[in-house]
Design brief:
mainly alpha, extended
């Protein structure tokens, strides 16, 4: 992963093959699922309502990518890394949890402001 993100020193484009294969495998499943009236184990699909590409989305994606590039982890593999006792997670996990808490706090503040202004 880190060799794919490092475009300056020894970029390894082989991850493009992994990403492309994942898209080819996933696309038919998503197309099939979208044609269904409901999922097998729920009464309806729970899809995001927002579709706009706005500043919070772009900033969040950038922060996620920067953190992934610096640490070499995204949130899913952190859980696996914990099971293996990876020592670098002693720094990454608290930082990730702090980021999640700060994002939720900021969103709650924004919601309170909207309610106070009569817009929420």
């Amino acid at each position: 992963m880190l060799a794919f993100l490092d475009v300056v020193c020894g970029w390894d484009p082989s991850l493009l093959l992994v990403l492309g294969t994942a898209v080819l495998v996933t696309l038919p499943g998503y197309r099939w699922a979208r044609r269904q009236k409901a999922p097998l184990l729920a009464d309806r699909f729970h899809l995001p309502a927002a579709s706009a590409i706005d500043t919070p989305l772009v900033l969040g994606a950038a922060l996620f990518g920067i953190g992934w590039g610096i640490a070499g982890y995204c949130p899913g593999p952190v859980i696996v890394g914990l099971a293996f006792g990876n020592p670098e997670l002693r720094l990454f996990l608290p930082a990730m949890l702090l980021g999640i808490a700060l994002a939720r706090w900021q969103k709650a503040l924004q919601q309170r402001r909207l309610v106070a202004q009569g817009q929420g």
